[in-house]
Amino acid sequence: MKNFTFHNTTKILFGRDQIPEIVNEIPKDNKVMIIYGGGSVKRNGSLEKVRGSLKDHTIYEFGGVEANPHYETLMQAVALVKDNGVDFLLALGGGSVIDGTKFVAAAACYDGDAWDIVKSYGSVVKKALPVGCVLTIAATGSEMNNVAVVTRAETKDKLFFASPYVMPQFSVLEPELTFTLPQHQTANGVVDAFVHVLEQYVTFPVNAKVQDRLAEGLLNTLKEEGPEVLVNPTDFDARANIMWAATMALNGVLSTGTPADWASHLIGQEITGLYGLDHACTLAVMIPAIWKFNLADKKQKLAQYGERVWNIPASDTQTMAIQAIDATVAFFETMGIKTRLSDYGLGEDSIPAVIDKLKEHGHVALGEHGNITPEKVEAVLKIAL
Ligand code: NZQ
Ligand code: ZN
């Protein structure tokens, strides 16, 4: 295990009826802007509940943050925040709304060109407005981490930034808020969280037993509860287990002292930026292809994963690794998430633009060994066709 520093400052308010607690988390004299997405929070009543909790605060609202939030939209929120002297931002939604809110929080306090925040991967951020979250979809872990992913629609650039200043101060995790998710979004969330664990676990062994067994616990939970909520979307316990697993999957605990891959995410970001696939769909396509390409590097952890998550019987490492890949693909398909580029209408002609974007963004040494070059990505994408 490598040395590590672990510091996570987000307060989690988990369970039933937590929204009324928000009022105790935001100073009484703060002007609060509630930021939300395309309208699900109006239809399922969560916006009304949040308004109720903040009835004694001065509140502003900004709706219309799209999935894969657009810089262009978020800059409208930044203008409103500045014009009204807003003190506190409350994200009500999923990863897109939370990420968008983190960007607004940083951009409202930044004097230069706000796109610098993304271009610099967050290094120019020296302060931000405080952010709180009410999570409506279990997926990204954004509610308890310092990362945000923003898309510039004009140039099709989808990029992440990270900064300790945008760490949420608190996040409300009410599993019931996820009851109204469309089945496909539920599945997206489970697959995204599953892949977050995999990207931090299926690398090479470093004898990090705590992290490995935490990862295996989260994977087993998502594997059991994911199919359950597709059938019973209002099963509170299953929703609660998925929600906490998704948060734990990307709050920094798993990456303490361990190598991480993230190639699927970085390639997937370009695919979403260029072709609009849902984030989780890009991961379901990329991770099996990367594993097949990198089998020699990853087979030990793949075999361990196969044994401890998919109950694959002991045999030679290579065979177990291949069976683990097959089991993972079957799981994604069971969740209704397709696993090949061609399932999304993308052919070989879609590949060069992905490679060009990766080069443009300097993502030319991917994977836990930093040895996946753009040429290798091309080979991986061909496997994924
Ligand atoms: O916009 P509305 O109308 O609210 O509908 C949303 C949206 O269409 C809907 N939805 C959310 N909660 C709902 C609901 N519908 C009914 N009932 C509810 N309770 O679901 C759709 C998807 O929402 P979105 O926020 O886009 O989903 P998700 O949480 O999967 O976020 C995806 C974004 O997060 C980024 C992704 O790249 C993508 O941009 N990620 C952020 C990460 C981070 N900050 O750490 C890490 C991830 O790897 C990921 O990259
Ligand atoms: Zn993800």
Mind explaining what this structure looks like?
With 385 residues, the chain is of the alpha/beta class. Helix content is 47%, strand content 11%. It is built from 14 helices and 8 strands. It has helices at 40-43, 46-53, 71-84, 95-107, 115-119, 183-201, 209-231, 236-249, 263-275, 279-293, 295-310, 317-334, 351-360, 374-383; strands at residues 11-14, 31-36, 58-62, 88-93, 131-135, 147-152, 157-162, 170-173. The strands form 2 sheets. The protein has a 6-stranded parallel β-sheet with strand order 1-8-5-4-2-3, sandwiched between helices. The protein has a two-stranded antiparallel ribbon with strand order 6-7. A hairpin with a 4-residue loop joins strand 6 (147-152) and strand 7 (157-162). Helix 13 (351-360) packs antiparallel against helix 14 (374-383). The longest helix has 23 residues, at 209-231. It is globular and about 65 Å long. The mean pLDDT is 98. The site of zinc ion (ZN) has 5 residues, from helix 6. 5,6-dihydroxy-NADP (NZQ) binds at residues 37-41, 44, 67-68, 93-97, 99, 136-137, 139-142, 145, 147-149, 177-178, 180-181, 185, 188-189, 192, 250, 265, 279.
Compact summary:
It contains 14 helices and eight strands.
Q: Which structural class is indicated by helix and strand composition?
A: alpha/beta
End-to-end CA span: 36 Å
Instruction: List the helices and strands in order.
Output: EEHHEHEHHEEEEHHHHHHHHH
User: What is the residue-mean pLDDT, rounded to a whole number?
Assistant: 98
* Secondary structure: helix percent: 40-55%
Q: Total strand count, please?
A: 8
How much of the residues is beta strand, in percent?
A: 5-15%
**What characteristic shape results from the CA principal axes?**
globular
What about the largest sheet?
6 strands, parallel
